[in-house]
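thread: overnight batch results

M.L. [08:02]
morning all. the overnight job finished for the chain we discussed friday. pasting input first so we're all looking at the same thing
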Amino acid sequence: MRLGARQGGLVCLNERKFQGNEVIHGWLYWVDHTAMGTAIRQSQWLFPMLETFHLFGIVSLVASTSILDLRLLGLGPMRQWPVSKLTQRLLPWAWWGFALQIVTGTLMSTSEAAKNYVNPAFRLKMLLIVLAAANFWLFHATSYKRIAEWDNDPVSPLPARLAGIFSILLWFGIVAAGRAIAYF
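M.L. [08:03]
and the structure it wrote out:
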């Protein structure tokens, strides 16, 4: 059991008063008390198992995107590879890891929906995920469309390098914020 995360089978909000829309509060209470949320919260092994698989997803996603981001920056052992070939090899690992994180993260959140809603680290993590998705979309909608022009260049054009820097910072921020969730 994580410190401060659960007390007596019910979500502990650490004496924070829920502020906001009563409809949202009612929905979060319902999610917390679904059969799935209750089972995960009361089980000795379900939450830790989900966390373990969540970590597998993090490793797959962050490792594959970091390798690609370093290539965009002209750094790392793969800097001689064409970006398109590296993307083709690594993107499936990133998507697999992201999908695993979505599934496990959603399941873990069903056991602590109300607590997560008021948790600043959880909110930061969700914001950073949205920004990482926007960065991914922007890179693929702009720089990557012209990949044939710079695919084999040792250093990518400035917009691609910026996307790589933002990606590394965002994903490492997401990992740090995710880790901090347990302490708020």
